[in-house]
């Protein structure tokens, strides 16, 4: 009897040790890329429930990290030493990352849900045949304004923002191309202007806007505008859509001088360790129901044609956020202006920020 008990104890202990070891091994494999992916996305740019649903469906654990500008994201990926399996750059960043060899070509056979994307968003010039990228969200840059706080006045142009009545009333999104672009557009220059005299002129014009600028902020811009901490915000369209749904006094306009049309896309960076898992994640996000859920949660416009069927009509019929393409033909997509020119834009933006009172 005693031998039997001893024998049981020995087997039991061995089983526990094995269980423990196998669990540790699983974890280690996860971190080595086996059953984990690291997703690197903009802040406030995914419905967290979708991450859970993906983990549950595939058994792949998602490590989720965020960035707040293309510049920050590219610097981190270029520097290496980190694992990112999926990232979400905008078009000019994709072009630059391609040029620097920072992207892995996609295997379209592993992305069957790509067929749901509206062809208008495919095969764009920054990535012919979508070799490296697939659409995630798209939108414009524009102005959110609070009609009540402005005494019923509406805003139609960038140049309206320089009005003396708007002292300390403007919040700007913390983006180099967006802010310098606003200066350029207000002077009727292109968002891709590389003429340094024009850029200096734009910077000077922005300096003159400073008395009206309350703050230059990240994702908190939404909360500040919804809570009426300022009457005006220069924002990305999806952020506008989200806060307009929370405060009836707010409206969104793409200024008449022109503005930016942008496309954010999922890519697999060179830092990836789990390329198979990355494809699974991308394909999951391309699923129309998931894309619709995501669009409804973050407020941004989806390029997924089939997903539109699952979204409320008041969202998809809103021309401010789902404009017809003919009405936005005059908008400009940022170009990859080359390393030096992009650095120059960043430098001007930093100078602008530093000269704040
Ligand atoms: C969401 C950021 C949107 C990025 N917080 C626009 N390119």
Short description:
With about 350 residues, the chain is an alpha/beta fold. It is built from twelve helices and nine strands.
Describe the structure.
There is one protein chain. The chain folds into 2 domains: 2-137 and 264-316, D-Maltodextrin-Binding Protein, domain 2 (3-Layer(aba) Sandwich), CATH 3.40.190.10; 139-261 and 324-356, 3-Layer(aba) Sandwich (D-Maltodextrin-Binding Protein, domain 2). Helices cover 40% and strands 15% of the residues. It has 357 residues and is of the alpha/beta class. β1, α2 (48-58) and β2 (61-67) form a beta-alpha-beta unit. The protein has 12 helices and 9 strands. Pentane-1,5-diamine binds next to β9.
Uncertain ranges: 25-33
Percent helix range: 25-40%
The DSSP helix count reads 12
Tell me about the biggest sheet?
Answer: 6 strands, mixed
CATH homologous superfamily identity of the largest domain: Periplasmic binding protein-like II
CATH T-level fold name of the largest domain: D-Maltodextrin-Binding Protein, domain 2
* DSSP strand count: 9
* Shape label: elongated
Question: Characteristics of this structure?
Answer:
single chain; about 350 residues; alpha/beta; D-Maltodextrin-Binding Protein, domain 2; 2 domains; 9 strands; about 40% helix; elongated; binds pentane-1,5-diamine
Secondary-structure topology with pairs:
Elements: H1 2-31, E1 36-42, H2 48-58, E2 61-67, H3 70-79, E3 86-87, H4 91-99, E4 133-146, E5 170-173, H5 176-186, H6 196-209, E6 213-217, H7 221-226, E7 232-236, H8 237-244, E8 250-253, E9 261-267, H9 275-286, H10 288-298, H11 313-316, H12 339-354
Parallel strand pairs: 1-2, 1-3, 5-6, 5-7
Antiparallel strand pairs: 4-7, 4-8, 4-9
């Amino acid at each position: 009897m005693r031998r039997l008990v001893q024998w049981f104890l020995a087997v039991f202990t061995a089983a526990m040790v094995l269980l423990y070891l196998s669990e540790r091994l699983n974890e280690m494999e996860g971190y080595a890329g086996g059953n984990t992916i690291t997703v690197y996305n903009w802040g406030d740019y995914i419905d967290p429930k979708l991450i859970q649903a993906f983990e549950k469906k595939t058994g792949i654990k998602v490590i989720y990290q965020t960035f707040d500008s293309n510049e920050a994201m590219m610097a981190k990926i270029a520097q290496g030493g980190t694992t990112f399996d999926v990232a979400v750059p905008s078009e000019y960043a994709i072009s630059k990352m391609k040029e620097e060899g920072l992207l892995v070509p996609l295997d379209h056979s592993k992305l069957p849900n790509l067929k749901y994307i509206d062809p208008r968003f495919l095969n764009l010039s920054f990535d012919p045949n979508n070799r490296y990228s697939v659409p995630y969200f798209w939108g414009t840059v524009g102005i959110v304004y609070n009609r009540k706080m402005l005494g019923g006045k509406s805003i139609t142009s960038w140049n309206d923002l320089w009005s003396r009545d708007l002292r300390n009333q403007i919040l700007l999104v913390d983006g180099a191309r967006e802010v310098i672009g606003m200066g350029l557009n207000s002077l009727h220059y292109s968002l891709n202007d590389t003429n340094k005299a024009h850029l200096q002129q734009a910077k000077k014009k922005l300096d003159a806007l400073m008395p009206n600028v309350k703050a230059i902020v990240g994702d908190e811009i939404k909360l500040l505008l919804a809570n009426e901490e300022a009457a005006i915000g220069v924002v990305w369209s999806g952020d506008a859509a989200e806060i307009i749904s929370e405060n009836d006094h707010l409206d969104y306009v793409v200024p008449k001088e022109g503005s930016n049309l942008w496309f954010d896309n999922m890519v697999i960076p060179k830092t990836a360790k789990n390329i198979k898992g990355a494809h699974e994640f991308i394909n999951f996000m391309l699923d129309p129901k998931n894309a619709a859920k995501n669009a409804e949660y973050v407020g941004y416009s989806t390029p997924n044609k089939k997903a539109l069927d699952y979204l409320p009509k008041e969202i998809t019929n809103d021309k401010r956020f789902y404009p017809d393409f003919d009405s936005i033909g005059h908008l400009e997509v940022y170009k990859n202006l080359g390393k030096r020119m992009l650095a120059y834009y960043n430098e001007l933006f930093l100078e602008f920020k530093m000269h704040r009172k």
